[in-house]
Fold each of these.
Amino acid sequence: MKIYLLENEKITEVVGTYKVLTQDTLFTYVESETELSEPFKEGALPQEFLQTQADALNAAKAQKTQELNAACDASIQSFISDALGSMHIYDAKLEDQLNLLGLVGANIDSFFRCAPLTNPLDKQNLPHTKAQLKAVYNDALKTKSEAIFKCGVLKEKVKKASSKEEVLKIVWEEIDGTQP
């Protein structure tokens, strides 16, 4: 792709296939895959335009990074474990994680809050053995680790993106089941 400039007063004189990128008081700046002849002149985009584009890309990257962090946080608010012999859903907010870590560290049997996957609103404090609590902990850690890895992969794509359009195409749902 080449960049061409065209004096604004000559805009009605031209034909061809090109994409208008920007315009200032003197010139219209275009991009073309094919060679353009007079009155087009090969040139470069104005520095102000390039800076505006760079600023917009950086803003899009920052916004997308915030979106991905929020999606990651949302994805680890709960997790599923079959430690009790059937699938149960467990809360995984920070306090829940600390409580689980404390129970595993204490190496004791205890009640822990969960709900059957088939009825997630039926949360109950159910008895768990030390081994079951350790299995729940491992499932929580696996869920959290996978989400953080996925977020990292997507944020790396954001970092490498060279256009605002590329950034906007990156979504949390893009990668599913990514394993570290």
Note: The chain has four helices and eight strands.
Amino acid sequence: MEIGMIIVMGLLLAGFLVFKAGDVFAPWTITVMVWLAILVMFQVQGDLLYPLGDQFRTCLMLWVPIFLIASLVTYKLWPQAEKTVKGEKTLMERKPLFNSSLFNFLFFISIVITPLYLYQIMKVVMMFDLSDMLWNLRILAVYGEESFGFLNYSYVLNQVLLVVALWEYPRVPMWKLVAIILTSIMSAFAIMEKGMLFFLLSSVLFVLYEKKAIKMRSIIFSVLGIVLLFFVINFARDYREGSDPNDAMTFLDFFGIYVMSPSVAFEYVEEDLTPQWGSHTFQTVYLFLARWGGDFEVNKKLQGFVWVPLPTNVYTIFQPFFEDFKYKGVAFFAFFYGVFSGLLYRMARNGNGFAKCIYAMVVYVLALQFYQENVMLNIVTILQFLFFTYLIMQQDFGLSWAGLVAEESSASTEDSDLLAPEDPSDEFVTTAPPETSDHSD
């Protein structure tokens, strides 16, 4: 059965690329590539873990076709902006309008609170053995009950500023972009969490590719590099003084745990028969209702471990939907994900600046669907990301009349490329020519 799925997905991927149904960052293309890669890995390194089970295969056969149809149909039905003529920049390539006064205000806040956030965390960690500092950082992030109030916003602020700065360069100068990248790395180090680094990588690759500054081979080499970097980070984080060197994680163990194991572990997920509707999918909603005095069960976000035979506590994107609604939940949320990702992709290709920034988060979420669910289980962070992105990308108000007038004046001159092509020297990077003259629909 898995061989048949590989053949079907391989043909689908070839069809998307040959007939140019979007590009490599289209939601249907990402989804097929992710699951095709997982299935191929099990054919090559299948003896590393237990075999895939029927429960996973059934959910995959529900998720992929429903997601593909929903995203493609939504993309095709949503009105398309007028195509550019040959030689002009596509609407996806062009820098969108943004509110520079609000961007600079949030940039200043991030520059201030990110070091403070790291400082507060390090004060706690340095109370313990410094030789285990990286391990203690992760333990504090996972199990600690400390709250740092407004400083916690540094994480999502850095995500928003990163995406906007990448799209707006060189209107956002290089020194600000470098500063944002550094604060993003500081946010990741503060909790020893690889998600921010992966978001940084996926956003950079997505934006540069859409600006035709890099080619597909750059994406492939970057992904291989980040896998090796994550292995080094994980090795350093899990090292503790006095530990047995024989217990150290090998690269194959790391690859098996973080890439392949969630698909096998999903076989251990069972339907939750508690009477509370959607307690796993909407656990964040129930958390807030419980804090406001409601009598609701709140599930822990941190999952228990299973051995497959390597230990893991992540169960693919299917996990919360299956636990609450079984197969019909997987099917429904495949449709939900497909509709909204297809809509945002169309809006981004139509030149909508807000959608361009939000779609960077979609790329991140879809690229990690083999690992875990990152929308419903992180809905607060997602809403904050949407809110701060909207603040920066909207043109209705600013922090000062002078700043808004200057922004509108800049927009009228720098973005006249909506009618005429930009100077080629205004590219993010100009060393690599585009693979194709345009991205067709």
Note: Confidence is low (pLDDT under 50) at residues 401-441.
